[in-house]
Records
---
Amino acid sequence: MGERFKGLGFMYRHWFMIFLMAFLLIGCSTLGENSLKNSVALSLSSGYLHFVDIRRDQNSLYVSGKVNKPLGKDLSRAKILASFLDQEGNVITQVEEEVIPRRTRLHRGRDGRFFIKIPYDSAIKSCELGIEWH
């Protein structure tokens, strides 16, 4: 009986090595994405913006997050203002994006989200976000 299971040790080691290699490759690609992600600093000028994330790939820069609605305000009238700055603080580009209100029965109109996509420019070093109510 020992002879029959003798070859299983090799098989398990073989699958373990394949799993380990895949894990290392995925970890390395994730490390590369994180280094791209952290190359742009983020500053928020409003306490209503939460869970803001900034990412980039080779061609685009993505900014997304959530907005909490203050009393007496309507999210359908809110605009996210994003300024992308160079190292000296000069504005490279500005974007105004609408807030998408959450439409679930439980949270109707109490919070929303936003998503901004711009072409990546290597001169962009920081992003300033604010919210404006119309």
Note: The radius of gyration is 23 Å.
---
Amino acid sequence: MERIMRTFLAFALGLLLLAGCATSMPTKSERPEVTITAPVEKVRTALVTAAIENGYSRRPGDLTNLVFEKNAGLAASIILGSPNEPRVVKRVRFTLIEAGASVRVVAGFAIISARSRTEVEQRGRGYSDLQDMLNQLESQLESATIAEGERP
């Protein structure tokens, strides 16, 4: 009975994931993105700060690919985890692309299941939340840059 319930829950989650994949962003990459007129160091620092303040931990990466993870919660662990490895994580990735005085930030959001060792990219609410966060970050950094006189 438990196996049937787990299979049903996995199927239901799969349908939800597919429903989320149908949503695309109105951006060039079809992912959350912004172009911020600010120094790349300030953009990088602001992204790291925002991720850590939202409970994410920094994962190995380089200066142009920032990767953060946090536990996906009990429900995700029950549905996607395995008895030997119940940990399921949310992963957020920011790619920074320098373009003169601006930095293009492209984000992605995924759920990592220990059972399958695969990354399932999430769209829908995860993407719209990321886009909102990037828009706020853009406003804050560009306002600060103008105030400091770094932008003509």
Note: Residues 125-148 form the longest helix (24 residues).
---
Amino acid sequence: MSARTKSMLAKARSLVRHSERRMEGAAIWCGLPRAHRRQDMPPRCTSALVMIGLVLLLAGCNALPGGGPPPRLFTLNPKTTFDTDLPKVNWQLIIEMPSAPASLDTVRIAVQRSPLNLDYYADAAWTDRVPAMIQTLLVASFENTGKIVAVGRESVGLRADFLLKTEIRNFEVEYDSEGVSPRVHIVAKLIKMPEREIIADRTCDYKVAVNGDQLEQIVEGYNDVLGRCMRRIVEWTLRTGASYKPGS
């Protein structure tokens, strides 16, 4: 049983107990003497009590954990512009699900106001967990180059020539002397398959100060720095794979 279900059941029991204590009106309607209004309540009164409890429960659902208005959802865009001299490759690439610390493996938008504190914006979220969102954006960015035969996730069953492994080290908004700055720090490794040999690695670490602290401005900043990082990873991957020679 989930924590939310347990909470709802506890709330329902509380509402029923509260309703029992305040059932004078229902007892009068049933014609019971005061001494027997609780102990000998007939079925029609019990049904009335249950209905009252359910109505109160439904009316109070918004007060339960997870209630209230849904968060505002934000997404980012894949990269569409690249160097014109990128090599066209005839191999296939799998993009592994990026790894990330637990604090970033979430749909919540992280904010760091001090080096030892990580928090999240209230009532705002990404459309997917950060690693899954970045994996999807990387796949689309490689496809947008028009320079690769096939690219996909591990689950699509490609017989890949290379595997791209990434680690998300930073994906938060930093508050510092430069202002409000979304930061994206990703380490990428290109692995030759099926030998699973790491042939090269590359790091991208970008942040940009935004003009203001509104969520729309912050998401635009994220779009900028993640776009730079994805372009760097895509172009490096294609060039590195194109120049790879076994045993080199």
Note: The radius of gyration is 28 Å.
